[in-house]
Amino acid sequence: MQLRYSFRLYPDSGQRTALAKAFGCARVVFNDAVRAREDARAASEAFPAAGELSKRLITEAKRTEARAWLGEVSSVVLQQSLRDAEAAYRNFFASLKGERKGAKTGAPRFKSRKDKRQSIRFTANARWSVTDSGRLNLPKVGAVKVKWSRALPVQPSSVTVIKDAAGRYFASFVVDTDPAADAARMPDTDHTIGIDLGLTHFAVLSDGTKIDSPRFLRRAEKKLKKAQRELSRKQRGSKNREKARLKVARAYAKVADARHEFHHQLSTKLIRDNQAIGVEDLAVTGLARTRLAKSVHDAGWSAFVQMLEYKAARYGRTLVKIGRFEPTSQTCSACGIKDGPKPLNVREWTCTACGTLHDRDHNAAINVKSAAGLAVTACGAPVGPGLVPAQREETGSHGSPPETRAA
To answer: Which of 18, 145, 274, 341 is most buried, by CB atoms within 10 Å?
Structure first.
């Protein structure tokens, strides 16, 4: 299974300048590739092949006066940018044909120098390395200081250098994990659990455990409003406005990182303690259009469930998603009678058939577990309908906005 580990970089002033050049050159090559494709489409001609674009936009372009500065950065960075453009077009055409799952993908667009997130990728051909002192040595950039939060399990195949909206730099490594080592980290257990995600509590488990919602965005709202108000008063294009923009971006990054860390700690604990987990397939996109939109986004249910998915696949656990239209909040978990819909302000209700008093969220969590079919045999293996392995997802290892952290 492939995972992505991210670590914070601290380049000096000269290295930041070199990275800025690399970001700019990669962006120019990407835009040139998109422009060549669009010109061919407008002329009703066949799209130029990748080899032809590489020769024209990189090799020959370096010999011209207008693009001579492309030679100041590693050629691997430029080749990878060209591959990114090719991949973007492949995804676009696959989406048009219905061969690609998920939302429709639009045609590749030109990148702007004003984009707040920038990245470049170095493969093994670039001969990047980690020095004995623990620095990341990048071609034509130098040995960059890295804050290693953990050791890489194996030698990575590539490294992506990312600059986010808050002006932070990250090195992202792709590695292949060892299934045997992952299995040893998470011994089998006979516990199963159902999870009801909500806003009053972030999660209520079928065993009665209630996990409070941290509400990271709500808690930081006053500070964010002040920073945004100061940004709105700065003159456009001024240095003070850029300073204010960075202040806003860093405040939002702090909120996102805190939420990300909370999701990772909780998902890892649930995966470690339970052999099988049942959870609802919530319609987050629809809920985000209601008056609860800010609270829904603040909770981050989708990101949390995605973490459960890839961790279940990595450690040999089972994750079952039940349908979003399952009446978990309307059904009595004691007698199974459907007691009808109830407004959100009703947190407790009594079953009219058996007289059982239910906590709304706890009852829903029990019904989620039941609907997922999470019965347990004597040997501890979960059985029942709908038990399918979770889909594998690429993940990461550091609380950076563009990545998710492996745990």
So the answer is: 274
